[in-house]
Protein 1
Amino acid sequence: MAILQVNPTRMELSRLKTRLKTSTRGHKLLKDKRDDLMKKFLELVRRNKELREEVERKIMGVYDGFAIASAVMSPEMLEEALMLPKEQVELEVGSANMMSVDVPVFSFSQSGGEGDIYPYGLVSTSGELDDSVAALKEVLPALLELAQMEKSAQLLAEEIEKTRRRVNALEYVQIPSLQETIKSITMKLDENERGNLARLMKIKDMMVAQQRQANGQ
């Protein structure tokens, strides 16, 4: 692991120890965040799978109804019946905070129709078309919930990946580099201290020798 290019001083050693302490704490917090994100993500994936199967089943029923209606009605009659819908749907997009990630929140409101959702007269159309239009209205809330959930899962997955990279950078690069640098500076300081101690002892011996020589004279 590469050692940081810093001056081997006690002040620098103290600063690096503070950085190491902060990095270690940050590493733990990021790992906890990653684990919580993964837990929430897996919950979303399981719910998303169930909801997608439900929506696909309902949509297939709608398609089957339209297919039967198109078989018993002429294309012109079918197109004319569905040309002008009675109800209007307004979609509102908000946001919510989920594990420090802003995820979308969809809500919708319907206007017009006044309880009658069929934009055509019931005399000249088939019952399958009526059932399909009603089923299509019922599947809309689940479809919006599915879109909201899939986008939330995508955003959580991106946040998990970013958090994972940060955890790995701290665990395998920054923290080991700080540890090695601290170890290297500590060894150099200890070596310098031993060298200074040896010089002081040598100076002391020289002074004692000079004192003895002076006393002998």
Protein 2
Amino acid sequence: MLTLGCHLSASKGFLHMGKEAVSIGANTFQFFTRNPRGFKSKELDVGDCDAFVEYWKSVGGGKIVAHAPYTLNACSADEKTRELAFMIMSDDLARLEYVPGNYYNFHPGSHVKQGVEIGTDYIVDLLNRIMKPEQKTTVLLETMAGKGSEIGRTFEELKAIIDRVECKEKIGVCMDTCHIFDGGYDIVNDLDKVFEEFDNIIGLDRLCAVHLNDSKNPIGSHKDRHECIGKGNIGLDALARFINHSAVRGLPVVLETPNELEGYKQEIDLLKGLYEGE
């Protein structure tokens, strides 16, 4: 079964997002935990959370993905920025306990001339302060395109974080097709090799979710500019092979393409038609 959805606005709450997802043929979705370019969040509505959990179970929905704001930088050179990241992520994970068993995805951050090793130290320290064995949410590191001083362009950089996280049963990876393509991984001509490399370095058991996007730029560009499915440099054929690969089967696949709701519906219909499973 293909678990496929898109990014939705959380402004009207969980239940609204669930019903909106179902209305466009989706059985998963992603949302920002708070303002993606800031830090403000709405007051948590526990009743809405409970209603969503019941509804989502009734429609057979898959695991959903919460996304931390883009402005969060867990490895900033500025201590106040790192502490802000700590407070935001701690609060987000506490809120997600009301919709248990799902994923929390974040960009590892930018080391800003400190170097990857120091940046990695900061990320590991933050995660080990935040994550608890009893939490119901799995935290996902997102693969990055490598623009600027981003950490997470290579599988080795993600492994260096995962290896030092204490709550290993609660840490995973979200693979973004645009990001890894822009980062230099050839998912168009050598998809099997990319997944084999991921398995050898990190382990496919750590791959928990996918952001499915085409790319406006060529491979290795390190630009991170998403394109609609089939309209970029990755192309429809390669993305169809991607969703049909055994490594992706059963994972929540989230579209982050430059679309409104109707455009997402069209892409979901298109990808369902290209899916070779049940």
Protein 3
Amino acid sequence: MRLYEALVPYGLADERFLEVAGRVAQFFCDIQISGGSFGRWWTTKGRPENTSGTNGAYIATFLCALLRHKDDEQIKGHLLLALEYYGRLTDDGRFYGDTLDADSCDKEAGVALLDLMLCAWDLLEDQRYLGWAKKAARFVLSWIWQTDGWLIPDSPMGKRHFHTQGMTSVSIANQHLDFYGMLIALLFERLSKASGDAFWHRQAVMMENASRQLVATETDMLGRSNAYYGWQPEQMNHTDWDYFDREDQIRGTFTIDIAWVAVLGYGAWLTLQEEGYITCDESV
């Protein structure tokens, strides 16, 4: 669908792209559970084994995107059923089970529901969806550092004058900090525009600034060779805990390097620019 949308201005959009998306949507509609959930874990025989959590919210977001291009009452019916289910999760504060490695309470579960409800609001303009978006946003807000925490001055983060303000904690199972905030900033900017509440814009700007820290450039390759230009650590350790019990990798260090950080951060940054929320002026 992204490829289809990108080619529309050039008159090169191929309807077959939407046909593929439609077939995928039909698959999800066929397996939707009666209560509205799209499930979570499935057996090799195609039966839902664990239906809890917010994973299926991503599928509902996909249906929202498809319905912008394809008028299909059947798909819309499945979407409305899903929105009721994920809306109830939001009302009940059941923000968990979003990622494969995070069966705990997790900010990404809130992000999944926030994204879905904003997409539903844009598509259907139902005030209930905007209300659920605000509730999900308030949950995500609880993971954002509003002040700077203390870091050991001679640690890698301390030497670079790293600011924790605007960063996000990972989950209740892992209190490291990560750069997921760039995606959250994009959603907060959209929520600010939809709701007219400038508070969410201020939070977004804080996260945008925080997420631009620790990007490897010519002036500082963050301890690596030039071959790693542009790399950014996934998580920063600021406590006495480390994944592998390494004494030298606690209280102000960073080592983990995973591709999603650059992909998500860069993609969110470009989308923020494309939608007019920021400019590319580095002095700002």
